Amino acid sequence: MHPVLSDRRRRRLFIFVWPFVGAAVGLLPFWWAGGQLQDWWAVALWGEALALPVLASTYVCKAAPIMTSDPWRVLATIGLAALITAGLWLESGRAWLWLVSPAAPSPYAVFSAMTMPAALGAALVFMLASAANYTLTAGDEREAVVARVLQAEISAREAELRALRAQVDPHFLFNCLHSISSLIGSDPAGARLMCIELAEFFRESVRAGAQHRISLSAEVDLVRRYFAIEQLRFGARLGVSIELADDLGAATVPSLLLQPLAENAVRHGIATLVEGGTVTMMVTRDDGRISVRVDNPYDPDEQHHGTGIGLKNVRARLEATYGSAATLRAESSDARFTVWLSLPADGLA
Amino acid sequence: MTHLRIAIVDDEAPARQLLREYLAAYPDVEVVAECANGFEAVKAVAESRPDLLLLDVQMPKLNGFEVLELVGRDAAVIFTTAYDEYALKAFEVHAIDYLLKPFGPERLREALAAARQRVLQAPADVSPAQVAADARPPGAWITRIVIRDGASVHVVPLDKVDYIEAQDDYASVRVGDKSLLKEQPLGEFERLLDPQRFIRIHRSFLLNLDRLSRIELAAKDSRVAVLKDGRQLPVSRSGYARLKELL
After folding, report:
1. Distance between CA atoms of A308 and A330, rounded to whole angstroms?
2. Over the stretch A160-182, which tens digit does the pLDDT of each residue have?
3. Contact assignment for A271 to B155 by CB distance below 8 Å
4. Domain of B148, in residue numbers
5. CATH code, domain with B102
């Protein structure tokens, strides 16, 4: 991509400004050398021809990128290119003016007197063009970087939204509806209770999902509600024990951070056991940080399907929010699966 | 109408309750067993001889497909599930009926009508193991082998299996010095097992690669695999090529 030719506004600017610069590069040394008005247009035209190497200077600049090359190398490359440009331009000028008219009082007659300032002017213009090139390219690159960063941010946000939407497992909803349908016949009051619990759970998770962060107590309430519904389905198979340290309730956490852990514990833990078991969630304050432990029994013989996705989501969200300031550790041993979370206690006085 | 004996298999009590309620409307249907997991289901099939299982897919210990694999020849099966893409495709391919939770009594009526047809007819010629195999997502190899022994079930983790030997339509699963017989051709096993772990070294043998100690030349052009416990198994020419590729 040419920094001038590929951009409409810069191209237009160049077309308007260059004719004056080109004419000046030719005519100024011409008049300095005492040239007459006769055939001055040939000298101006010769100056205009310098547009070619000026535009081509971008390729020289590309060969020695200013950010990555040795400064001497940049200087040497540009200087050499300027010299060659000036030399070639002078020689082509000599030939051209001779062609127009070799006899005095033509411009050709004063040519030798004007070579020095002309060469200097051409080299200077070339070097200025190179400098402009470097400036424009750096600006373009910065813009590209900014665009890339913005794009990445947008994708990350989209991924987060997708993850959020996917977080509440559709099987969960289908199974709940099936349970409600069953309870309607045998236990209408229970069916009503489950409808209300389910509605509350979804209302709260939608509300939480719309917010970036929620209070830890709200998040733990959501988890409680989730367990309450699952207990209606699993009956005595699912035991739940939740503890939240009193002084942590007001701390803020990314919304729906703990709910996937609860869902994992039921789906890949309790649901794999004939006799079921108890899920424990302990949220404590540890050295000014929030420490979460979720612990559940599971069947080690079970062929696990889909495990790790919920955990991966939680890890990614921690990473996005806290960087290296939060940690997640998971361990399975002795038919128990345990997840430890440690994150900064934001929002506490 | 024939009298239909049904076993309900679901690990969630409300789901079992619902089926009981729906089925109460049919005077010619008898619920002979209610099972909360796969083991109970296999036991119920052996003891109560139901014509039809209403079988949940996601269950602890033994899932719906494993139950189908074990008792699919003795009873017709209607699956009940909250949705699983691959499973549904397998059911459709093999014309096994399934009920998507939540379902109503009308949908159950249709499924029962179809099941009656199937119970009256001879059993389908597609093997239950085949259906179970088709219901798994591609690349998801089995991690255990389930073998029925009367009313009880052996669940054998793959790392306990030394090799599997073909015996006509059966396969003998070798675990230490025990052999467990399962009605499943060796070729079907081969499709279900991770080909990086279990190698068809011979027409009649699938070997757990972990057990291999070395390969010896027995005679000109014939090789044997020597296992870590000293046992020897024949290796065919194509089996040798497969081994060489992996080692």
Report:
1. 10
2. 666 655 566 778 888 899 999 99
3. no
4. 144-246
5. 3.40.50.2300
